[in-house]
Amino acid sequence: MASISISSSLSFPSVTSSPNANPFTRPISTFRTPKATRDNSTTRTGEASMSIDNLKRFFDLNVGNWSGSFHQFDGTGNLMQKIRTKLAVNTYGEDELISLIQTLYIKQPSSSTTISGYEEEPEWAEYKVKETNMFTVDNYQHIGFFPNERAFSLRYQTAGMLETVLRQGVLGEDDTGEESPKNLKLPSRRPAIVCENCLYSQEKDRRARAFHIMDPRGNLDMFLIFLEDRDSGDLFPPSLDSDVESIDKIVPFLGNWKGHSVTKRSGVYGATIAEADTVALLKMDDKGQLIQDISSTSAGKTITTNVHWTGTMSDNLVTFDGGYQYTFLPGGMYLGCPCDIAKSVEEWKSFHLEFGWVETPGKRQRLVRTYDVEGLAVSSTYFSEIKL
């Protein structure tokens, strides 16, 4: 994958734990904080003012009333649940004390207990998302923000908000509080990784927020996607078409792609640390195998990295011989991750989580989140590409 071709130019924080340690046997809250985050002070006026400016731009990108749909997929791309959602986003405070306030509304199903002859109005459950401010984005969420490209990555320590969406949207008032409700797959309450990658539409005021959920041992648990329009009203909220055939989901990605990538280290202070020109080919041979060739040339034209992968496709899932997998979803989307993250960690390797979106034919965006061997997000890479 293109993310692999760029990894050679990234610098990772030094690692102090044993090479045999597996962080996925303990909750993510015990992972160390990256040195880049620990040492960030605001004593340098230029750096501090730039971080505040980035934070405000991040808030401006999110503010509004978002209406859309929440989708839950298993690791092989099968739709499990679809739920209507609304999100109200505002700010309060000024300068270093500015905060982002988000209230999520989840459409509840009709209760199994009904009154004859009485038609219920739809009920919306309310959930207050944890406040976001200068402290949280740098110390907990490890934001990877691309203000000009309108994209960002965030790290979560729990999946509480996502569990609430599923409980309220599927069970509603009939939720008895069971830890594992029948016929409902919930994310682990002690996930190893919860990663949000968000890409904004280049055509309209729409965005897609994709979540990778990894269980406590680092195994893929599920994928979750919010597809949302801003200030559009409630009549026609966007939604992913679940009736698309598997082969049709991969077709938008086939062909030759040329583009540019920008890599930034994590944190609201994060500066660009690498840029590259990329060329990618994804094709299917006469044996039904997928061939992927990636070429990445650094901005200074000094380093070119080439990657060749062969993959096999089963329904919506493509498994590459490089130990990486793509799960193709409706709406011109896919999510990528290592086939075995725990193995990557045990072998002392960094790893990547990826979200790609072909919103219109011939144009695609990709966002790649890079983690070190202790499960910490150290950088994010944004790709903008056109089909040749």
CATH architecture tag: Beta Barrel
User: What does the oligomeric state look like here?
Assistant: single chain
Envelope shape: globular
Number of domains: 1
Give me the number of helical elements.
7
Which structural class do you get from the secondary structure elements?
mainly beta
In the sheet with the most strands, the strands line up as: 10-11-12-13-14-15-16-17-18-19
State the order of secondary-structure elements, H for helix, E for strand. Answer: HHHEEEEHEEHEEEHEEEEEEEHEEE
| Name of the CATH homologous superfamily | Calycin beta-barrel core domain
Q: What is the CATH third-level topology name? A: Lipocalin
Please write the CATH class name.
Mainly Beta
